[in-house]
Specification:
It is a single chain. By secondary structure, the chain is α/β, with parallel strands linked by helices. The protein is 35% helix and 18% strand. The chain has 11 helices and 12 strands. The strands form 3 sheets. An 8-stranded parallel sheet has the order 9-8-7-6-5-12-11-10. It starts with a helix and ends with a helix.
């Protein structure tokens, strides 16, 4: 199709239907690149521009995005956030879970959060390990500089008012995991001092986003500088960790002393210890019930989704019972109490104004 004809069709496509006026030979021109199109018509069309808006918090829409003014109404999360890590995106809507822990590249971050918001799923964001290492490899040595660069990319995708809008959807951001596993991190363990430096930077770049570590709070307590920079810790059980109730109670008590929340769950992939078999349906009910019912938990997130296991009807039935218990509990946040709603609103407003100020 020639450029002049394409431009003409574009012009006519912008017009909304309108009653033809009295016939007259109205002349018109249309500039299109190197061409000027001349023509006339025997009626005068009424041109209606479709409004396009910049998303903003007041209208419940995303900042830094210019899109057609059509959006999907979100589903408010109900009950205690509960589910599995690596939960498939195509299970978000219509599934029985209300929470997930997901490894998300910055390019996929906002889209996945929007999907979760529309489906009533709450997310724990996990940075891809390859983006945290010195060599860009999953098994590389952890780098604070790499972690800070990733926060810059996350902040670009999630400006302050967007973070505020999705406050109910984002449970938190895990600052890596497996800190003491040298095999996991190129032969060098991650230290509390490194995580503290990362957390301090993330606080500035992503104001109001809850930050946590996927480890029990005693790791945090060993380095007092770290706790004030975090919102939550983690207590993930398998049977080699001793009495389950004692394990959860100790984690909850210490977390409270540090001013932190705690995510409570079960390692359903390694039910009897790392490298052992997965939990069966009876194991799920036995171990999952005290986990989902613990009064200190801010979420019930478990390791991890396996498609073959999920296909078993008895496993889905067991999960259904556990997730029903979660829905019966009130929704909770995994953030420190001092980072309340008014504080987040104020921070988002201040940073948004700074971003718009002329230099």
């Amino acid at each position: 199709m020639s450029r002049p004809r394409s431009a003409l069709f574009l012009l006519l496509g912008l017009a909304s239907p309108a009653a033809a006026q009295t016939a007259s030979l109205a002349a018109w021109t249309l500039a299109s690149g190197d061409f000027t199109i001349y023509g006339h018509t025997n009626s005068t069309p009424t041109v209606t521009l479709r409004p396009r808006i910049v998303y903003d918090t007041a209208r419940g829409t995303d900042s830094a995005r210019v899109v057609d003014s059509v959006r999907v109404t979100g589903t408010k999360p109900a009950g205690l956030a509960a589910g599995l890590s690596a939960w498939p995106a195509d299970h978000y809507c219509g599934g029985i879970t209300s929470g997930a822990m997901q490894s998300l590249d910055p390019r996929a971050l906002l889209g996945r959060i929007q999907l979760a918001a529309g489906c009533g799923v709450r997310l724990v964001i996990v940075p891809p390990r390859r983006l945290l290492t010195t060599n860009g490899q999953t098994a590389g040595v952890f780098s604070v500089d790499s972690a800070k660069r990733l926060m810059d990319r996350y902040a670009k995708a999630l400006p302050p008012d967007t973070l505020f809008k999705y406050r109910a959807t984002i449970l938190g951001l895990n600052l890596a995991d497996d800190y003491g596993c040298t095999r996991c991190w190129g032969g060098t363990a991650i230290t509390q001092a490194q995580v503290a430096e990362w957390a301090a930077y993330a606080r500035v770049k992503l104001p109001g986003l809850p930050l946590g570590v996927r480890v029990t709070p005693n790791w945090v307590a060993a380095y007092p500088v770290l706790a004030p920079l975090l919102d939550y810790t983690w207590a993930q059980y398998h049977t080699r960790k001793g009495d389950q109730q004692t394990y959860y109670d100790n984690a909850a008590t210490l977390a409270k002393r540090l001013g932190l929340r705690v995510v409570i769950g079960v390692n359903v992939e390694d039910c009897y210890g790392v490298g052992t078999s997965a939990c069966g349906a009876a194991d799920l009910i036995r171990l999952g019930t005290p986990a989902v019912s613990h009064p200190a938990s801010c979420a019930f997130i478990n390791w991890r989704y396996d498609e073959a296991t999920w296909q078993q009807s008895e496993m889905r039935e067991a999960w259904g019972k556990l997730l029903a218990l979660a829905r019966a509990r009130p929704a909770r946040e995994c953030r420190r109490t001092e980072f309340g709603l008014s504080t987040l609103r104020q921070r988002a407003s201040v940073l948004s104004h700074k971003k718009c100020r002329k230099v």
